Amino acid sequence: LSKFFKGGGSAASKGRGGPSPQEALARLRETEEMLSKKQEYLETRIERELAAARHHGTKHKRAALQALKRKKRYEKQLSQIDGTLSTIEFQREALENSHTNTEVLKNMGYAAQAMKKVHANMDLNKIDDLMQDITEQQDVAQEISDAISNRAAFGDEFDEDELMAELEELEQEELNKGMRDVRLPSVPSTSLPSRPGVGHSCLLKWRKRAEDEDEMKKLAAWAS
């Protein structure tokens, strides 16, 4: 304890008007270590005096009582050290938290200064002009993209009605060509019935039917 309270700290600490948080924390840890060793010593002495009191017992009453008195004094010192350690531990934790907060605030101050330095080179009017230019260029790019993606109007100068009329003429030509290719059925070689009127009528019906069937086959072939 005399070393801690009378050492006065380092010369650098005196020159700065007080120890740094790191130096103070180091001293507090040294003190905790010293008091912990003193606790171990007192606990050992208490056990020794208690053993001596048991050894002397009532046969050597005076010696036994002296041992118990010393044990009581050691126990009192041990209790005081326990309280001192609790106080030092609380102080050390408070100092650690203060040091942490100080470092945090210092770093935040550095960051604020850096931001201020960066913003000092910025002109809000120039930023507004720049954003306006970016917006205009984006609009131009969108217009170019829309123009490229639209279907090219090649061939739109032709009249659609004229094209439809030409298409109908082509279809009519193909239909007429198909009709010219239709062949009439040949006249049957069998003799006509002797009954007048009836055989000629049947022949005409059969020929008409054959012509219709042949025509339908031609039209179906042309359509396919």
TrEMBL record:
The keyword Coiled coil appears for this protein: yes
An example Gene Ontology biological process: protein transport
Annotated region (Disordered), positions in chain: 1-24, 176-198
InterPro entries the UniProt entry points to: Snf7_fam
Keyword annotations: Coiled coil, Cytoplasm, Endosome, Membrane, Protein transport, Transport
Location in the cell: Cytoplasm, Cytosol; Late endosome membrane
Biased composition (Gly residues): 1-18
Cellular-component GO terms for this entry: cytoplasmic side of plasma membrane; cytosol; ESCRT III complex; late endosome membrane; multivesicular body
Main location: cytoplasm
Membrane topology listed for this record: Peripheral membrane protein
Keyword Membrane assigned: yes
Family statement: Belongs to the SNF7 family.
Protein name: CHM4C protein
Annotated organism of origin: Oceanodroma tethys
Taxonomic classification: Eukaryota, Metazoa, Chordata, Craniata, Vertebrata
Gene: Chmp4c
